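User: Assemble these into one structure.

Assistant: Restating your components, then the assembled model:
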Amino acid sequence: MSENKYYVPEQSALPIFCATAMGLMAFGAASWVIEGGDAKIFLVGLALMTIVMYKWWSLVIDENMQGLASPQLKHSYVLGMLWFIFSEVMFFAAFFGALFYVRVFVNAWIGGEASVALFDSTPTDAATANNDILWPGYERQWPVMETPDQAVNGDQAMFKGPDKNMSLPLWEYPASQWFSKLYTLLPWLPLWNTVILLSSSVTVHFAHTALKEGNRNVFLRYLGITVMLGFFFLCLQVAEYYEAYVHYGLTLQSGIYGTTFFMLTGFHGAHVTLGTGMLLIQLIRGLKGHFSHEDQFGFEAASWYWHFVDVVWLGLFIVVYIFG
Amino acid sequence: MAHGPAEGITRWLYTTNHKDIGTLYLWFSFAMFLTGGFFAMVIRAELFQPGVQLVQPEFFIQMTTMHGLVMVFGAIMPAFVGLANWMIPMMIGAPDMALPRMNNLSFWILPFAFAILISTLFMEGGGPNFGWTFYAPLSTTYAPDSVNYFIFAVHIMGASSIMGSINIIATVMNMRAPGMTYMKMPLFVWTWLITAFLLVAVMPVLAGAVTMMLMDINFGTSFFNAAGGGDPVLFQHVFWFFGHPEVYIIILPAFGVVSQIIPTFSRKPLFGYSSMVYATAAIAFLSFVVWAHHMFTVGMPIAGELYFMYATMLIAVPTGVKVFNWITTMYRGAITYETPMLFCIAFVILFTFGGFTGLMLSVAAADIQYHDTYFVVAHFHYVMVAGAVFSGTAAVYYWLPKWCGRMYDETMGKLQFWLAFIAFNITFMPQHFLGLAGMPRRYADYGLQFADWNMVSSVGAFLYGGAQILFLYNVVRTIMYGKPVAEAKVWEGAEGLEWLVPTPAPYHTFTKPPVVISSAAGEDEWTISGATPHVAFKAAPGAG
């Protein structure tokens, strides 16, 4: 190894077991969702995946502790994490794109209001016909409280709009009353979720600064607070979903509003769960003394991920909640 | 790292070596190429004569669907990933890929994904029957149950592609030998860096599209259902936002291969190196903003039609830059016509032809006639087969001596080339005529007026299939009995780091990073210790 400063790992059985686990999970998930199927194969895959992930990360951490990871390899890890986050950005872009497309174009077409030109609000013949023939009675609206299905089929409709939506409560009042109605924001969960998630981005940054300064206790304290905030966020989201399903009549099946609402916030919530898990593992590693003020990639990667999740939330808060 | 490969099957199962993984990718892709080719043979056999003869329409549409899926995701993409694995570390002076274990994972996901995908053909209700573009609601409301297997197979394929691309990006950005600046990298490395970026950007969007399908099918969401306020056209937008960059993901590495081979056999440096790099980047950028030219007949606002038409035509500019550069590289070169060069020249001619039919399709008004006809089928087979597959074949012939230390049989190589070249044109040239005459794609039967050209096309297809068997035979024969090659620089006019290391390439290429020195003539030259001492090469030509 003396003249070769780059660490090329020896043969490893981990990747093929990981691929096997992915294959089992994919096959198992498909047979699970098909009517009459069950989750057995998926769970076997998941169990195998959990074992592989644990072993794989332990191995990487071990190698790092032994000093096998050169600065160049560590830079590869940095690049890997950053491009992984970029791929996540694009995943969310697909769902945000779907939301914008539905709100801007589809809604206008079904509602018969798609206009002939940018600054001319005359509806096109196609849009008018679309509305008259296919979805008579449907009016362009967002959030979609009455689906096209309901407009045509009434109570027989498969897709029934929600009774209540998640938008900013102030919109229910005329602009002149907004100031006096500010108190309605107090019980509005998304606001609290925003406060929690934004604070957690700050605390994780404090933890990072403390770690770089070699201040271990402060690092652990702030990281602990961050994990707790992540956990609170998830609790509030569960409460919000419960509220939606039980009191608002807002479900995955309640038309495109429910669809986009739950898919966007749901995938975000899944990412918060993952991020909280990552930070929790870093906290455990921190308690074990794995980090030094110059070697902290595991923690940094988790914190970048956390900041990313935070930015996605800001996007959600603006387009799904405030202007939802 | 003095040790060689491990013994037995674990060498392949547990490997972390970029060459082993490259080999796995290449063999896997060839197996998929034959599988997808078999599906194509079923299609052409059924279309040999009008009427339903061999397979039922329900099965025929499964064949066209699986042919497309297997060829795009199983044959072409893994073939170029295999080439990337083999060549990129050798070309940039890296000891291996940046993340070797993840590299192995990226490969081994593929056999599982395709086992799941192909197994759907044997399921109740049959396999995917909605075309490789899986438009909703065909793929949601009206799909067989097996669509769920398709969805999850696509998910893990996507994971494989994303990991593979991240690995390539990290390797190129982080593992270049000292002195190997970006603008000195061989063009194959450049095109792959840009391809990998495209993959990381759009594979997640594909994951989003199939996730929306999954939710619509099983959990009552209404992304693609107008009754709930969604829109089936939304599917096409999301799909083609992935799908259009995907066609450049397939063709850009092919551009890279051709840009390596043409200079070698023209014995001239590549003309306009930096313009090639910029053109590749421009194509990649444009690929994100032209997707709806696949949807001209779906009912878009006129402003949308016009925008997507003009933006699409713009792609002809950087693509033209590339074609002119290849031709100018050959101009007044001392050209010899070895098999790889033959495939590359055919590539330039036929790809340009396919590019021109693409330009015809980009005219929104004209596309209303061409849309979903055999004209489109002919167009994309000119760029996919004569483009990607020809350049992949050229790459195998070109680098095979470096990989296994043995020379292929030139006569047999040329025979395969001429057979493939002629059979390809017999297969796909008539499809232009069929399409212009109005024959729609994806149908098991057709009107009698299409009978003659369909028979010609089918004969060509069987010949083309035969040419692939010859290819397989030639490659296997070379590996086992080919004439040994001793010199590091297998081809007289070849340049680049991969021709500096011994032949066959050692299991671990570089024990020390190669060193760049500037010669008296002001050109960059590479030396490498451990190999033949003081062999020097010019770096990527045209670089400042």
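The mean pLDDT of chain A is 92.
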